[in-house]
Amino acid sequence: MIHLQGLTFRRGEREILRGVDLKINPGEHWTLLGRNGCGKSTILEMITGYLFPTSGTIDVLGNRYGQVDVREMRKRIGYISPSLIEKMTLRDPVWEIVASGAFAYLRFYEEVEDEVRERAYIELERVGLRSLAEQPFSTLSQGERKKVLLARTMMASPELIILDEPCAGLDLYEREKFLYALNELSTRKLSILYVTHHIEEIVPFFTHVALMAQGKLVASGLKRDVLTTDKLDEAYDLPLDIKWRDDRPWIEVGKVNL
Ligand SMILES: Nc1ncnc2c1ncn2[C@@H]1O[C@H](COP(=O)(O)OP(=O)(O)OP(=O)(O)O)[C@@H](O)[C@H]1O
């Protein structure tokens, strides 16, 4: 599904990625964790073909980057990045925003086929927003907008969904609703790669975790093997204690001397 080998990325004197190896198999759902600036978004931008490594190889969905048209690859990958919402036209109705995902357009300049419109309604129904289909996108809450983007992503039947901090700025209720919608999608034939700063967002359907620090992977593998006190201490340089409740982790922070 995704195989990164020996990825490095340099900008001037800075080594932003330092030998990242990561293998994600079909059907696995991964969370990528690490402090600000450790290189998470850089990895996502490489997997989506917007950035190229200084050295190392990237294989995604059976294709080696450098030997494949990345525009074709992007049609097979749903990518929800922080900048995507800003690119949407706020006055467009919600269903149209969703429908545009079928063609990877940002908006339509011609009549939308009935079949595409119907599919947009179905995807909206799946994320629980069918009733808002005719409203302008601008009238939706932040959480609803994020779920609209999820529905939009599903229009292209992606084999891989990549999300960069999709719950940033959402209140607890909106966050849980978003994660519930994502959980529903996780049962379809696809893999999810999800970047977050919040360990409690690692809901039960996530199977694996990759933990980064300063451009390197501290650990990667099954979530219970990676989310240990020692490994988290190493990545965050804080006295942390991990607890589990209903297969969902949360963090206790010990006395901090910064
Ligand atoms: N094109 C670039 N030129 C120079 N520096 C860059 C470039 N792209 C990223 N960086 C730097 O690389 C580091 C990693 O950035 P990246 O956005 O991948 O981190 P991140 O882990 O996603 O951080 P955050 O959690 O804050 O979003 C940062 O220090 C950033 O300033």
UniProtKB/TrEMBL annotation:
<dbReference type="InterPro" id="IPR003439">
    <property type="entry name" value="ABC_transporter-like_ATP-bd"/>
</dbReference>
<dbReference type="GO" id="GO:0043190">
    <property type="term" value="C:ATP-binding cassette (ABC) transporter complex"/>
</dbReference>
<protein>
    <submittedName>
        <fullName>Putative ABC transporter ATP-binding protein YlmA</fullName>
    </submittedName>
</protein>
<keyword id="KW-0067">ATP-binding</keyword>
<dbReference type="GO" id="GO:0042626">
    <property type="term" value="F:ATPase-coupled transmembrane transporter activity"/>
</dbReference>
<dbReference type="Pfam" id="PF00005">
    <property type="entry name" value="ABC_tran"/>
</dbReference>
<dbReference type="InterPro" id="IPR027417">
    <property type="entry name" value="P-loop_NTPase"/>
</dbReference>
<keyword id="KW-0813">Transport</keyword>
<comment type="similarity">
    <text>Belongs to the ABC transporter superfamily.</text>
</comment>
<dbReference type="InterPro" id="IPR017871">
    <property type="entry name" value="ABC_transporter-like_CS"/>
</dbReference>
<dbReference type="GO" id="GO:0016887">
    <property type="term" value="F:ATP hydrolysis activity"/>
</dbReference>
<dbReference type="InterPro" id="IPR050095">
    <property type="entry name" value="ECF_ABC_transporter_ATP-bd"/>
</dbReference>
<keyword id="KW-0547">Nucleotide-binding</keyword>
<dbReference type="InterPro" id="IPR003593">
    <property type="entry name" value="AAA+_ATPase"/>
</dbReference>
<dbReference type="GO" id="GO:0005524">
    <property type="term" value="F:ATP binding"/>
</dbReference>
<feature type="domain" description="ABC transporter">
    <location>
        <begin position="2"/>
        <end position="239"/>
    </location>
</feature>
